[in-house]
Write a structure and sequence with these properties.
Number of strands of chain B: 2
CATH topology of the largest domain in chain A: D-Maltodextrin-Binding Protein, domain 2
Structural class of chain B: mainly alpha
CATH architecture of chain B: Orthogonal Bundle
CATH superfamily of chain B: MetI-like
CATH topology of chain B: MetI-like fold
Largest sheet of chain B: 2 strands, antiparallel
Number of helices of chain A: 20
Radius of gyration of chain A: 26 Å
CATH class of chain B: Mainly Alpha
Oligomer: heterodimer
Number of strands of chain A: 14
Largest sheet of chain A: 5 strands, mixed
CATH class of the largest domain in chain A: Alpha Beta
Strand content of chain A: 5-15%
Structural class of chain A: alpha/beta
Chain lengths: 447, 334
Amino acid sequence: MKSNQKITRRQTLKLLGLGAAGAALAACAAPPATAPAAPAAPAESKPAEQPAAGGGGKLEIFSWWTNGGEADGLNAMFEVFLSKNPGVEIVNATVAGGAGTNAKAVLQTRLAGGQPPDSWQVHAGRETLSYVNAGQLEPLTQFFTEQGFDKVMPQFLLDQLKINGEIWTVPVNIHRSNVLWYNPKILQEAGIEPKFPTLDSLWAALDKLKAAGNVVPIAVGGKDKFEASHTFESILLATFGADDYVKLWDGTDTMWNDPRAAEALENLKKLFSYANSDRSALGWADAMTQVLEGKAAMTIMGDWAHGLGISKGLKVNQDYGWTPAPGSDAFMWLSDSFGLAKGAPNPVQAKAWLVVCGSREGQDAFNPKKGSIPARTDPDLSKYDDYLKAAIADFSSKPLVPSAAHGASTTNAYQAKFHNTLEVFSSDLDAKAALDSLREAAADNNK
Amino acid sequence: MSAGVDLARVSTLERARSGRRAIRRDRLVAFLMLLPSLVAIAVFVYGFIAYTGYVSLSNYTTSRPDFTFIGFDNYIQLFNQRRFQENIRNLIVFTAFFLVVCLLFGLFLALLVDSRVKGESIFRSIYLFPMAVSFIVTGVAWRWLFTPGDLEPTGLNLLFESLGLGFLKARWIADTSVWPNIEVTGLKVRLLIPLAIIPVVVAAVWQMSGFCMAMYLAGLRGIPEEIKEAARVDGCSELQVLRHITLPLLRPITLSAIIVLTHISLKTFDLIMTMTGGGPGNKTELPSLYMYELRFSQFNTAGAAAVATILLLTVSVLIVPYLVYNRRAQSIER
C-alpha cells in the first residue's frame, strides 16, 4: 500500500512534469505556426486599410544601403516620408555587403518563409523578373499613371521597367556604369589626353603607362565578384556598339555566336594584360583607392566610385577625373528601385513610401547624398555637384543602354553566372571556355 | 549474518515482483518525457533533411516553386559542370592538406607541451587561443597577410622583403596556377593542387591545430607513465618509446581528431568566404560556397539542395563508420 501511494505521488510529479514539457513544446511550436499565417494577415486586415492611412502604423523597408552616403540618402528619404506621414514607425531592415548579394540572400529567406518586408530594394529592369515570376510583387502600372510618374520619367526607362506588360518597381536613382576614372597627375605626366573615343586610343595610352612602369596602368578588382564583369560590359559596348549591345541580353545565344563576342573577350584579355595581377584579392574600392592615391593610373567603375572620392575629401576634376569608358559615349545606366510586396503587412504605408520614392522631393533628397542622379527629368540642379550635373546632362542627351552586371538587363540567375564566368576569365584568360559558358548561360536570362 | 541475507533476498524478490509493472511504467513515463524532443528532432532535423533530399530531385530551379519530380537530373548537371568538378577537387585537396598538417602540427605541439617545460600552461593557452577566434576574423586577417600586392608588395610579401627574404615572396591568394596542371580525359577540370588554396590551409591550420593539440594532450596524459617507464627499463630510446608506445596508444585520439577535423573541413564556408570568396576563378571555392550561390544568387533551390545532399552523404560516409566503431568499442568495454 505504502509503495503504491509512493508511486502515485511520483506519478503525479511526472504527470506535472509532462504537462510542463507539453506546454513548453506548445510554446515552441507557436512561432512556426504563426509564421505561415503571416501572409494571410494583410488580406484579413484589408478593410482596416483606410483608417491606417491617416497616421501611425508601421513600414518595413528592406535594402542593402548600410553605410556612408547610401545610408544618409535613405535616411533623408525617410525624413521626407515622415514629414508627409507623421507617426509611422519605419523599420529600416538593411543587410550589408557584397553589392547586395547578402541582402538578396536574406530577402530570399524571408520571401520563402512568407514574411516579406513591405518594400524592398531591387535593381530596376530585368532583375525584377524572378520576383514577378514568383508572384512576389504587385503590379504598379496604374499607380504610375495615378502619380503621374509616367510623364516625368524618360520613356526608355518606362519601357525597360515593363515585364509582362506591367511596371513593377519605382526607380529612385540612376547610376552610370561605364565611367573611366583616372588620376589627372599621372596622365598629365605621361602626356596622355584623358579622352578615349576608341579602344585603340586606350591601348595607346596604356602602352605609354606600361612603358613608364612606375604605376599600374589600369586597376581592376575582383574580390567583390562583379569587377571583371563590370569592366567587360563596357568593353562589350565598345565592341558591339549601342544598338547591338542591347540585343545581347534577349535571353538567346544569338549575339554570343557573333564573332564580335569573341573579339570582346580578346579586348578584355588585352586590357587585363595592362592590369594588376592580384585582381582577385582587391575589391573595386581598393582599385579606385589606388587611382586616388596615385598607385594606379585609371580604373573602370560605376559612378559610385565618385562617392568614394568624395568620402576621402578629394575633388572631382581636380584630384581625380572621369570620362566615359573607352569606345562609346553611350550612357550605360542602372537603377535602384523599390516595389510593393504582394501580401505586404502594411500596404497603405508601403504605397505612401513608393509615392515618396518617385517624387521629385524624395529623389532630390536621396540622390545628392547617394551620389547618383534622379530617375526623373525634372531635378533641382542646384543640389547636385559638378560630376552629377554632367551625368544629368548626359542622361538626357546620350544614347542609353542598360547595364548587365547590375541587373538592368539581366536576371539574378544570369548575373551570378555572368559574374562567375568573367571572374574565372580574369584568372584563367581562357576565352574559349568563357565564351562557351556565356552561350550556355544565355537562356538563364529568362528566369 | 544468514538472517540478514535472507531478509535482503526477500526484499529483492518483493521488489522484483511489484517492480515489473513499475519499470514498465517508468519506461513509459521516460518515453513520454522524451517524446517532445523526439518529435522536434524528427521534424526539424530529419524531416527537413528528407525535404532537402526531395527538393534536390525536383524541378525547383527558378524562383518559382515547382516540385515536379525529375529524378537525378540536378545531380547529373552538377557533376557535368566544370565549376562543381573544381569544387570537388578543391575540397579533396583542402581536406587532405588541412587534415595531415593539422594532425602533425597538433601532435608536435602536444609533445612539446607535454615535455614538462616551464610555463607549460602559458604555452598551452597560446596554442589554444586561435580556436577562440571566429573563422570570419581568421579569414579577414589572413587575407590581409596573404594579399600579394602588385607593383608594391603588401602583407607577408612586404614583411619578407623588409627582412631581406625577398625570395620567399609569392602570389599567395592571387595565384591562379594549378600544380602540376594535369588534364584528365572526361574531366573538365585540371588536376591537382590549386596553389591559391595553400594560404587558406595555412589559416585553417593556424586556427585548428590548437584543438588538435588539446586532444592529443589529453591522450598523452592518459598514457600511464609505468608503461613508458617499463619500456625505458627494457632499453628503449625516447624515440622508440614514442614510436612503439605513445603513438599506438594515441590511435583512438587520432581517429576522433580525423573525424572532427574532416567534417569541419567539409563544411568550411566562413573562412573561404571572407578570405578569398572562392577566387581566383573558383580555385578556392568549396561546394558549401557554391551551394550558397546556387540558392541565393541563382535562385536554383533544387541545385543547392543537391549540393547539400552530396555534402551530407560525404560527411555521413565518415561519421557513420565512426559511430559504429564507437558503439562497438563501448559494448566491448561493458
